[in-house]
Amino acid sequence: MNHETQSGDGGWLGSRRSLVLIVFLAIVGFFLLTEHRAHLFGILPFLLLLACPFMHMFMHEGTASKAMAVHNE
Fold first, then answer.
1. Helix (H, G, I), strand (E, B), or coil: what is residue 11?
2. Rounded to the nearest 10 degrees, how much is the dihedral formed by the CA atoms of 65, 67, 72, 73?
3. In the chain, where do the E strands start and end?
4. For residues 18 and 12, is the Cβ–Cβ distance under 8 A?
């Protein structure tokens, strides 16, 4: 049995199959971004409104503990 091996000069990234895959994924990514951009921009105001309660909880967390520490001294 004579098994021929590929030379190590190109590897997987140097093959034609990988080039086709990379180009295909770039095209798919481009069309996903361009076609769904309206959906993403349409939800941004709601994400901003959703972020407000979380910012309120996390940003005021430290002030209550500091006030309690000053009050207990």
1. coil
2. 110
3. none
4. yes
Residue with tokens 């091996």: 5
pTM for the model stands at 0.43
b/e per residue, 7-39, with b = 16+ CB within 10 A? Answer: eeeeeeeeeeeeeeeeeeeeeeeeeeeeeeeee
One-letter amino acid identity for 54?
A: F
- How far from chain centre, in Å, is Cα 57? 25
Phi, psi of 5 (to 5 degrees): -110, 150
Q: What confidence tens digit (pLDDT) does each residue in 55-71 have? A: 888 888 766 566 666 66
- What is the signed CA dihedral for 29, 34, 39, 43, rounded to 10 degrees? 80
Ordered by start, the domain boundaries in the chain are 16-72
